[in-house]
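So, does this match?
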Amino acid sequence: MAAKRTAPSPVSPTVTPVVPEPAVAKSAGTPGRAVYFNRELSWLAFNRRVLAQAQGERHPLLERVRFLAIFSSNLDEFFEIRVAGLMQQADDGGAGEGGPDGLGAREQLRLIHAEVAGLIAEQYQCWHRQLMPALARQGLVVKAAKELTAAELGWVESYFREQVYPVLTPLALDAAHPFPQLGNKTLNIVVSLGEPGADAAAGGEVALLPVPRILPRLVQIEPQAAGRRRFVFLTEIIKLCAGALFPGYHVAGAHVFRVTRNSDLYIDEEEAENLLKRIEDELRNRRRGAAVRLEIEDGVSAAIFTSLCEHLGLSQEYVFRLGGPLNLLRVQSLCDLDRPDLKFPPFVPAAVSPLREPARIFEALCAGDVLLHHPYDSFQPVVDFVEQAARDPQVFALKQTLYRTSGDSPIVRALMEASRNGKQVTALVELKARFDEANNIQWAKQLEEAGVHVVYGLVGHKTHCKCSLVVRREERGLRRYVHLGTGNYNPRTARLYTDLSLFTAREDLTSDVAQLFNTLTGYNRAPVFRRLLVAPFNLHARLLSLIAREAENAAAGHPARIMAKMNALVDKAVIDALYAASQAGVTVELIVRGTCCLVPGVRGLSERIRVRSVVGRFLEHARTFYFENHGGDGGPLIYAGSADWMPRNFFRRIEVVFPVDDPALRRWMTAEFFAHELQDTANARELHPNGSYQPVARADAPSFSAQNYFIAAAQQRAAQVAAEL
């Protein structure tokens, strides 16, 4: 098992319904002076756009429920990672890497918690006042315990005795029973107990009931009954029946609470003799990380509230009192119901690319490059590429990066099959892919058992690039084939995320990919890449030079334009370069789904920069870049790859950005991909200088969805091919 190689240096109030201010914090500035949005507040503005998908009535009902669940999951991760890091900085006196906006850790925490309070208020208002009534009108009723009829109550009590009671473990809290270690994001119920007939205000014993994760959080009442489907939260059932666990006591109160903990991994890779073992140990410790948030049902007594905060080591500004069910991620189970009338129309990706015949994949690539646009184009050719390489007797080497993949990964199975077939197989497995570490550890072990050479890349750098290299013996000698992508090798998420896949046999690209793998598995202090832009080696400097070239052309009166799509824009040097380009006369069109620290539309600074965010049915995930390149060889430069424009991607990750060279593919990228992305008025929101995101002005034109356009185009391609058969 190879070690990593060293790379060369190249405070929350109680939730009340409020109308939040725009999520913006920027350095003091005047026209011409650089200003920046705060990274964390910009991310919260993105999650607000996710919540807006649940609040509006444009999407089918169960899809709105799904967006509400995604909002909740996103917020969990934000606290586990981003807020946890800021709290650690604040505890350390503000040490740590600051953002371009100049805000300190404590000031950011204050602004974050005020913003989150407003978001959560909107979230629960959406659930109670919009989604629950709409679900009820469709025969899907979510009930509180107090709303149960006598018959429903009987069923619930029976369900508790048979399914819930046997797996509950009451935990007393007294001198003989210390406060337990509560797992990250586990639901617990704090129960106040008193003597029968005693005054509830007199106080008494306190116990905890951990809610078993093995049980469904949303229980269907009498699932075999005809008519309306009725549901009740598991926590409501446990609170209703908690007395059965404490004979001789009266349950004076029961309230659900949930602790979020710091879930980032802190590993000194230079000192980690066995990286896989260290990460396994850290994963076991993750569930015991420092508490960063407490969510608790409103109405809990002051004494219990104070006691919980003390045991968790949390000041009260990190506590959110909620007026509804905790962890609304669990309402996503409603989306599994067989109600196609309440979901997006089904969509089958088009399987009509030149690679649709697996046995002829290498023959097709000899004829020219192939570019796929997922999920509109099927992801199956990516799987077929690796599977065919595993079985083809002319293939004798296969190299693959793995950052995130599916639970039953056909890619991993193909790599193991290739090894068993006697081929030289190397897998670059990123053990620190956040929240997928445990899965990747299991894949690494299975791959090694199958004889695959497993390595973990460079010390201090995550291997985030998406590359697959096949070496094949042919009549004219050895030939290399490559897949390069913007998304993960995960067939499941490939149906949900928009990404690009490039397949090529071009020598200039395949030789660069071979150089990359040699760098990651061996020693190379100064790798040279002719065509690829690779972080941390040449990506950042090359992007700055490309932006500067556009600025020079604009200043000289030549056409100059930049179009770029990504998930996040944070890097200060790139932002400053874009500001300079705007001032020189460059038209800059940015599509940034999530965090954007650049402030567009400021007179004298960024007035030629326009920023949009697209949030819709599919998660916009592709990173693509266009530079007009007036006077340059080959015309405009078009790239795609794995890197967002963030310091972590430029300097702390292995990223690959690749050129799109084929003339037909370049025309498609310009006339179809970028043109229709920038034309979107249905899912797009435009970023304004004050930090707010507003609908894109339509100028009396019909609403246009780029995602719907690409779906229709894929269906048309599939229909044309079917008609020709």
User: Anything to note?
Assistant: Residues 534-724 form a domain with the Endonuclease; Chain A fold (CATH 3.30.870.10). The chain has four domains: 23-138, 154-314, 358-530, 534-724.
